[in-house]
Input
Amino acid sequence: MIGRTAETERIAAALAAARSGRGGALFVTGEPGIGKTRLATAALDAAASADMVAVRGRASTVGPPVPYRPLVEALLLLARAGLLPDPEELGAYGPVMARLLGHTPDTGGRAAPHLAVAETVLRLLAAVGRQRGCLLVLDDLHDADADTLAVVEYLLDHIGQQPALLLLVAGRTPRAATELALHARRREAAEILDLNPLTHAEVRLLVAAELGTAPVDVCPGLLHRAVTGSAGIPFVAKELAHDHAARPAHRGRPAPSVPAPSVPAPVADDVRRRTEALGPLGTRFLGTAALFGRRFPLPVLEHALGADHTALSQVLRAALASCLITPDGPGTQWYAFRHPLVGEALLEDLGPVERARHARCAARALAHLHPGLPGAWRAHAARLHEHAGEAHEAVRLYCEAAQRTLDEAAPDRPLDRTLDLLTRARALLEPGTAPEPHATVLELLLDTAARSGRLDPLPDPPTLDHDIPAPRRAGIHARLGRIATLTGRPADALRHLDTARSLLPGHHPADAHTALVDLAAAHAELGRPAPDRLHTAARLARRALDAALGADRPDTACAALLLLGQLALPEDESAATAHFKRARAIALAHRLPVPRTAAEVQLAITAAGHDAQPTRLEQARQDAHRRGLLPPAHEAGFALAMERIRRCAFDEARDGIIEGAAEASERGLGRSLAMLRLADAVRYAHQGRRAEMSGALERLEPLLDAAPGLRAMAYGSARAFCSLLEERHDAAEAEFAQALAHDTDNPSTADFGRHGIVVLLGVLAGRLGRRHCPVPPHAGAAGTRWNRQFAGLAHAVLLGREGHREQAAAAAAEALAAAGPYPLARRLGMRLVARPAYEDGWGEPVEWLREAEEYFHGAGLHPVAAAGRALLRGMGASVRQRRTGTEQVPPDLRRSGITVREFEVARLVAQRISNKDIAGRLHISPRTVEKHVANVLHKTGHPNRRAFATASRDLLPTGGGRPAGQGSPTSSSRKSAVPPEPARWSTRSTPAEPVR
Output
């Protein structure tokens, strides 16, 4: 059973104990639909599989009351199966069994005494379970009569010595059965298995199982409805799956003629049955509450109903006990339906006249209790007016509530709420509605969709009433152009902008609509193939900024500043940061949370190029995502993925890419999807996995024009970097040249290596010189930590060529320090500059190559590791052999060139064992041992065996492996040795970082 592993294991253990003669009792409790009966059925199946006697009885409130109903039902089942013992076998209790089964008439019309019945049942369980154990399930015990509960209480106290298990199923309704369970647990006579709702993942598995398919093949819309609509209740989730399976299949978004999914009939019947049990007042109470949606305010309902407080309190308690509603938050002001389908079912049961009457009463009560409708009350009032059939007032209130929600700073996805409000408002607009509401709803809807990335509520295509003034229509087309840019449709964006410009001939340059058109045009310009597009975009953005400030549109001004900052970032980081900070200041001054969050994202992206850890960037991404700002959240996610790739945190990068790409694909955000697919290709490239990289680039191909700079990064950050790790330097040079050509023809702000690795390769090849390596790097992309490592090494190479050896070594050390967070790039830089460093006599090329070779070999990047070994041989340095067992050699010894055999000898030398004994242990000649010892001493820099043994205590076997009679070295011997650093074997290198 999905989500019930712990419970089934506990039942299985109790069944095993019963088969061994150690009985027990388990209560299974939970709200309606949680799966209590299903778990009891699984227990019956498990008992039957173990060849136990398994019977079930169920209490019921249907028909006249029958004493001991569930017990009698279980006994009749045993009788039909021929498993009842003879009455004589029960002795004095045989007649009691016969009376329970109706075989003998009651004398005097009285039922058998409780204790007699209880002892009879206990003896019956002992008799039928004597050979193989017995399971007795009593279902719906909350509906049982008092006589049955008295017998159960007796059984609980005496079942422990019998070969039987009692499985008692009861709801959470505060009745006698609930009290019995609690008392039994307190006196340790029974355990309670209280079933909790399923998790989201378990609901997905349950829906897939009901449909007989894999979770990945289930309709995303169904999964979303099951997860959000069921509240984890299996009965509801199953019925939603069955209801979906019975409907005609629709690909993509539902056709307009298809009505919204209704409540499955079994769920509606269940809600109706429990509601009717509350009486007329309860039905009216819950029906009015459903008009508010998922949650409702109790004081407003009490005022609207005008009911007696005591009577309403009784209804409230009964509704809580029936698990129809639940408290929502602290206090007693707000309540919510247990799951959304409860409210939907109640609404469906309300007729039009009754719904309108209840809604008008509730709207009047709301306006009376909360004059002016502050905060979220305006949205509730709009919903009530909608139910009352007052469409014009509802649209007005929905638009005002949406604008207020946009202006909130709440971090819990306020834009999703705004879109929901505007979608409801748009649905109320009719052909005869005035143009003003049409324009207002569409403007707000487009603004919110562009900020949130949720495009599904948008009309496709939107219709514009020609009675709407031309400037407003121009602004709407500008918004449509911005959305086309977000979805990766640059041609559509330009078409909308042409229409917008045609509607603004001779318009004032400081007009708000002009600012919108110029801003949308600036964004669209980045997707237009042209060598001057960055300058044109910057000019348009500056013009949009001036117009927005003149028209007092701070939100548009913030958006223009953010774009100006992004355009300035590659060349002037300080100017870009100033733009971002100015946007944030304007947003804070005008209390605009959306642009403030977007500014925080841009500032975090900028800082990530310098920070030791990308913590700030991850926090900014999470904040944007929580607020429902998907485009900036995905932009931060792309920057975070690239930073994690550079830091070799490949698994973290993969998880973030998969999550973001799935969301971008679902929402139709082509620009975000393209960026994340590119990041996936770069991830494979930095691991030297060309086949996977090529596959990722193929998936990117249809979206290459969805975002600027993708083609250049595909060649530079992906293909060329992968070629470097394959030691195909000519191919890498050609691919970087291709990236530069793409960027020259269609410039972008993307960083594909132009200011870093491209500079280093150009200096190494002699194509670039001092004028291409400004010191310090200018404040732009070249100043980021990632590019500074390569540019710094290029500067070191030039200094070495000029004969400034000490300065070259210092510049290299500074560059390698900047490369600290980037283990792969750091070793790649070492490998690339080792030859010129060796030839010009600066730095530590041998140590660099050994460290790089060790790292690349461990990372499985064998071409570049082999190149390092070849360079070491050319420098006359010792090169370690790659053979089985190398992982046993400590990293510093490996970098010193110690082989596996030499390490075996070194460990024995550390134990102060003679050459003769070493030869005997390793089955080699003493002469070979002498050669290995000499190599070890030479490679580790120790003058003699004693000094090596003194410094090599950590090579000794744990638990003591030193031969008897040889203690620790004396202090005098330690003084005569040349002690290496205590934590390292060589003072010239550091341990290699593991590949993550």
